Amino acid sequence: MKFPYQMQRKCTSHHHQIPLSVILIFSFFILTFSTACFNGNCQPCSAATDCGPGLYCGHCPGLGRTQPVCTRGQATLVTSIVNGLPFNKYSWIMTHNSFSIMDAPSLNGVQRLTFYNQEDTVTNQLRNGVRGLMLDMYDFENDIWLCHSFQGQCFNFTAFQPAIKTLEEVESFLTENPMEIVTIVIEDYVRTPNALINLFRNAGLDKYWFPLSDMPKGGEDWPTITQMVQENRRLLVFTSDASKEAEEGIAYQWRYMVENESGDPGVQRGSCPHRKESKPLNSRSASLFLQNYFPTYPVEADSCRENSGPLADMVNTCYKNAGNMLPNFIAVNFYMRSNGGGVFDIVDRINGHTLCGCSTITTCQEGAPFGSCKNISVPSLSPMTNTAGSFTGSVQFSRRSTSPLHSPNCSLFLLFYFLLTAVLLQFP
């Protein structure tokens, strides 16, 4: 992958002039990322214990790789390296449909028939460095549930669990990690008045709430990470329902961020259209940029390929379409799967590029001038060192990707799914 010609000549990021040498290094490592593994990643393994810290043992059917190898599975704790800058200067990993977890038990006694987007719990996602969650919320069974559905209606065979259970996981994480900030983006189908804001209060998250009144509405910088932590305003919540801003004090997403198209249009090579609800990506009237990169129909076995070179290429494409702006959030399916470094490595390189002018965040030097980087030949992929990021059995993947249960024939599955839904929609 190559950066655009304009960026190779001149790259301005948050009012800093980036040296050409840094651009070339950054471009080189991104290019390498698409075809190789780093720092001991990709060594053969049979269990997570065969791999180093921050790595798990997994395979990549999407690239024809059946032999399990050590693969990166944790993010760098970026604020431990570069802190004190505005929130909108940083890049974070976001999970698409964070609640849609394989092997999640059915809580309503009905066999679930729907798509899955992630493999481990929301708690484990957060422990592994995910800082953005996409949650689909619906009125269901006199409560608010996390669910997949069509036409704004949740069905018992597409429901996952009451939303408060997931929000309680977020509350526990924020309580246990007082330096961390979490962002939630809600695809909002909740129509019961005040139910959504009451949901967050009942989950105990109001004490971390970043108030709507202090959110920058004209593309200005957000408060610094340090300020947000000191003031305990460590939860950002956005809704897709514009009415909730005036009625419940929940920020309408597209007043504060731009977003590219989700699903298949968002993974088409060489194209990065903005979502119809969003302002153009190169608009400067919103200071956050959410980049989606996941196909409409998720396939676990293909995600390691999608989250590798193609994702790196799309970051470059969207960078150009956004007027030389790199994303603050990168939303993916099966966030841990890649051919080596995956979304973790891409976010490291974006943060290094924007925060300190280095090829990756791990070469930044705390307190050093912009562009002063550690003199190392290979970027360190050392992940978070806090114990909250330790692995659990939920990320020791099996080879279930080849089983009919987890990788059904897409055409047959979709045909059955849509026919069944169409029938059910005929009845009130």
From TrEMBL:
One of its GO terms (molecular function) is phosphoric diester hydrolase activity. The keyword Transmembrane applies. The chain crosses the membrane at residues 411-427. One of its GO terms (biological process) is lipid metabolic process. InterPro entries: PI-PLC_domain, PLC-like_Pdiesterase_TIM-brl. Keywords: Membrane, Transmembrane, Transmembrane helix. It comes from the Eukaryota. PANTHER family: PLC-LIKE PHOSPHODIESTERASE, PTHR13593. This is PI-PLC X domain-containing protein At5g67130-like. It comes from Cicer arietinum (Chickpea). The gene is LOC101515182.
